[in-house]
């Protein structure tokens, strides 16, 4: 009896060691692959956004308070953390996205193990997750954070339903909220879905239990307390937050939704591999319905229905954002769960083999398209071998292979443009800000002022006919006046945004070259 117990303990230790080895490998792999692709190519309007936001925070400028922001502030504060520890450079910037990729990969691996999938299967699906998650962007991006934090909330919801452990119920609202603070759309719909399924879980499976609800509420209250603490400590106006992050984006979303054409390509064909990944779950659900009287079957059916509706929300949100597709990481998520339930209810080797074939094919296909060919960065068809080392711009960018969609055939010309801008702005002793897609510039010249917008594009700046235009204009002018700004440097067709704010073209324009303009705004503020 004692010998048997010792053997069981030894086997348990060996199993834990094997899992730990796999976690170490996944950690190294998920970090390394993100670093590799995070150092190849840039898409200025996206690639530098969070870099500049982290630099703003280092200088004491906060979103909603010191600059207009309609995107997730959580990325800004995470980047501040990495800049503080590792310095303001490209390494610490990419480490941010690599860290999120690592967190998602390891949590997903742990989720599959806890669900009941064999170690090696869980490892393979997690490798796919690491490949299809953050490497497509390489650098921190709002949409990626929002999707991944929401996906983690979904994973914890499934574990909460299957295991009913307090920690999962507590963490669900935390990850939903930080997803919301990354980008609004995914978490808004998912929170409603989770509330609905929690209700069904309570009524059908736990009619007499209230303990899990206590932890869910405690997690919600704790998350809200942390949020308001940050708001109060940094003296951020709640009204500013609501207007910039809720009411104005809600209006943008309504306009976007009305302009979307829901044809077969948009709804189905571009997401076909995700839909294929759900087919085994649908087949399993039909089997479960016949055995619905068992408690375990009820849990499984609830989980499968929750997964299907979650995936629908992710797809709908992706369509609504009208960005490059980034949710292909749902393929290993769906297939991993399909593998578990197929093995449990069918145990059909041919079906499980088909699942792995879909996984391998889809992973390879989207790895090549989005990681190797950099489609998310708008670099498809560009010869990436033309890239040059960005240390020619600054030592802080050393190792970054610079090539962008703006100058795909001549990256050196783009670097010359940036260096010319640096030289001109550094030689100007007036109080100044920069409006540009090259938002690394303020950090490169150690600029201690902040532009009134997190970034300038057609969505982030309200038009004159928008009901929030007056609020925006007042915010913009207050920012300019409080910093006593005299000069604005525009790089690449940004003058339209000044014309919205300053009436009668009161500013004076000096053309420095075909891309850069120096704007004197003194007469606009008299």
**What class would the helix/strand composition place it in?**
mainly alpha
Query: How many β-strand stretches?
Result: 6
Total domains, how many? 2
Q: How far apart, in Å, are the first and last alpha carbons? A: 91 Å
The main pleated sheet reads as: 4 strands, mixed
Strand content bin:
under 5%
Overall pLDDT: 90
Outline, from the CA principal axes? globular
Provide the spatial order of strands within the biggest beta sheet: 3-4-6-5
Flag low-confidence runs.
Answer: none
**N-to-C SSE string, H for helix and E for strand:** HHHHHHHHHHHHHHHHEEHEHHEHEE
Radius of gyration using CA atoms only = 25 Å
Helix count, DSSP H or I runs of 4 or more residues: 20
Helix content: 55-70%
Keywords, please?
about 525 residues; mainly alpha; 6 strands; 2 domains; two-stranded antiparallel sheet
């Amino acid at each position: 009896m004692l010998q048997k117990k010792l053997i069981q303990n030894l086997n348990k230790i060996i199993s834990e060691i094997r899992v730990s080895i796999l976690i170490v490998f996944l950690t190294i792999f998920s970090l390394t692959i993100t670093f590799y692709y995070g150092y190849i190519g840039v898409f200025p309007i996206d690639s530098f956004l969070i870099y500049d936001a982290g630099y703003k925070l280092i200088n004491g400028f906060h979103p909603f308070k010191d600059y207009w922001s309609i995107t997730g502030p959580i990325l800004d504060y995470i980047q501040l953390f990495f800049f503080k520890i590792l310095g303001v450079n490209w390494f610490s910037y990419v480490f941010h996205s690599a860290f999120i990729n690592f967190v998602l990969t390891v949590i997903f691996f742990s989720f599959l193990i806890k669900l009941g999938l064999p170690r090696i299967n869980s490892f393979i699906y997690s490798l796919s997750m690491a490949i299809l998650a953050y490497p497509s962007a390489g650098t921190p991006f709002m949409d990626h954070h929002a999707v991944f934090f929401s996906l983690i909330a979904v994973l914890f919801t499934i574990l909460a339903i299957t295991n009913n452990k307090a920690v999962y119920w507590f963490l669900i609202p935390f990850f939903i909220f930080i997803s919301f603070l990354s980008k609004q759309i995914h978490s808004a719909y998912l929170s409603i879905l989770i509330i609905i399924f929690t209700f069904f879980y309570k009524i059908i499976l736990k009619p007499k239990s209230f303990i899990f609800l206590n932890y869910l509420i405690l997690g919600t209250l704790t998350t809200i307390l942390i949020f308001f603490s940050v708001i109060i400590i940094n003296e951020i106006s709640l009204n500013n937050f609501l207007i910039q992050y809720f009411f104005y984006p809600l209006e943008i979303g309504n306009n976007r939704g009305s302009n979307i054409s829901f044809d077969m390509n948009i709804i189905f064909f571009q997401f076909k591999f995700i839909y294929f990944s759900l087919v085994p779950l649908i087949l399993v659900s039909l089997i479960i319905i016949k055995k619905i009287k068992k408690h375990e079957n009820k849990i499984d059916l609830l989980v499968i229905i929750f997964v299907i509706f979650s995936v629908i929300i992710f797809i709908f949100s992706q369509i609504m954002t009208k960005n490059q597709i980034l949710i292909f990481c749902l393929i290993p998520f769906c297939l991993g769960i399909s593998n578990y339930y197929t093995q449990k209810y069918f145990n059909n080797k041919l079906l499980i083999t088909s699942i792995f074939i879909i996984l391998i094919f889809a992973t390879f296909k989207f790895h090549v398209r989005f990681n190797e060919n950099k489609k998310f960065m708008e670099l498809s068809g560009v010869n990436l071998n033309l890239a040059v080392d960005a240390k020619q711009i600054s030592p802080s960018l050393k190792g970054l292979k610079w090539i962008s969609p703006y100058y795909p055939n001549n990256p050196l010309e783009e670097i010359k443009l940036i260096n010319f801008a640096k030289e001109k702005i550094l030689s100007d002793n007036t109080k100044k800000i920069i409006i540009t897609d090259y938002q690394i510039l303020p950090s490169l010249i150690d600029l201690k002022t902040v532009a009134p917008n997190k970034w300038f594009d057609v969505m982030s700046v309200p038009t004159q006919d928008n009901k929030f235009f007056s609020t925006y204009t007042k915010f913009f002018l207050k920012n300019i006046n409080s910093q006593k700004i005299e000069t604005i440097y525009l790089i690449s067709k940004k003058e339209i945004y000044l014309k919205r704010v300053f009436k009668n073209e009161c500013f004076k324009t000096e053309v420095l070259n075909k891309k850069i303009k120096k704007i004197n705004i003194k007469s606009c503020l008299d």
